[in-house]
Amino acid sequence: MNMHENIYWLFSSSAQAIAAFCALIVAGYALVNTMMDAMQEKDETLEEIHSQIKNDYYKAIIWFSCINGLAIVLSLLTVYLNGVKFKYLNIMSIFTALFVLSAIAGGIWFVLSIINPNRYKNTAKHIIGQKSISGIEVDVAEFINLFIKMEKVIREIFIKKKLKYPITDKPSFGHMIKVMEIEELLTKKEYGILENVNNYRNLVIHGHIDKVDKGMVDILRNILNVFQRKQEEL
């Protein structure tokens, strides 16, 4: 078998293999998306983390699809040029082989990123890093203790006002503040602060964070004082 036959079989096969590989990766990506949606329905605290993960996966799948598309096109082009005895066929073959290898490596990297057991933890840490306000870190226990007090105050107000959440008799913090906003017991500003605090708390829990931003602790303390006064007035 001469060089031209080798090139023909190598790159005609690589085009088919890469196309099948790409299809499997995209199918796996769609399955993971569906699984995340199902998990989020059961646990609303995953919403922000899932949003970031989906955004990261989408960017990766776009990049991966482009590399795979180019690898397939170049493989077929190399097969065609091989038939017409292209002058620079050796250079073209090397260039195409690099794209094929890049496509394979990209697919493996994407699969590894999907099955990474620390992806939730890493994503939560990444988002928290972007939410830094003061740049000063304090122990997470201070934030959690304040949040527990905040949730207790909100729940007591929720019960005293005889509010109901239609889906469950034991609504979460996020459910309660949403109902309270609808009933105009919260201003839009207060709701925004409480929602932000709740999202931050979810990230802290899922990210197993030891330190939190002091600015967020101060925000939580201030809004807690506001609602403790409201509770006393009821």
Would you write up a description of this structure?
- It is a single chain.
- The protein is mainly alpha-helical and 234 residues long.
- It folds into 2 domains: 3-116, no CATH class; 134-233, Four Helix Bundle (Hemerythrin (Met), subunit A) (Up-down Bundle).
- 80% of the residues lie in helices and 3% in strands.
- The chain is built from 8 helices and 2 strands.
- It has helices spanning 3-42, 47-83, 89-115, 119-130, 140-160, 173-182, 188-207, 214-233; strands spanning 137-139, 211-213.
- It has a two-stranded antiparallel sheet with strand order 1-2.
- Helix 6 (173-182) runs antiparallel to helix 7 (188-207).
- It is elongated and about 90 Å long.
- The model has no long low-confidence stretch (mean pLDDT 87).
Layout of strands and helices, then pairs:
Elements: H1 3-42, H2 47-83, H3 89-115, H4 119-130, E1 137-139, H5 140-160, H6 173-182, H7 188-207, E2 211-213, H8 214-233
Antiparallel strand pairs: 1-2
Helix pairs in contact: 1-2, 1-3, 2-3, 2-4, 4-7, 5-6, 5-7, 5-8, 6-7, 7-8
Describe the structure using short key phrases.
234 residues; mainly alpha; Four Helix Bundle (Hemerythrin (Met), subunit A); 2 domains; two-stranded antiparallel sheet; 2 strands; 3% strand
Task: Describe what is shown at a glance.
The chain is mainly alpha-helical.
Q: Trace the largest sheet across and list its strands.
A: 1-2
Order of helices and strands: HHHHEHHHEH
Helix/sheet category:
mainly alpha
As for the number of domains, it is: 2
The percentage of residues in β strands lies in under 5%
Count every helix, treating DSSP H or I runs of 4 or more residues as helices: 8
Quick check: average pLDDT? 87
Helix content: over 70%
What gap, in angstroms, lies between the N and C termini? 90 Å
Sequence stretches where pLDDT stays below 50 over 5 or more residues:
none
The global form is elongated
CA-based gyration radius: 27 Å
- Largest β sheet strand count, sense and barrel closure: 2 strands, antiparallel
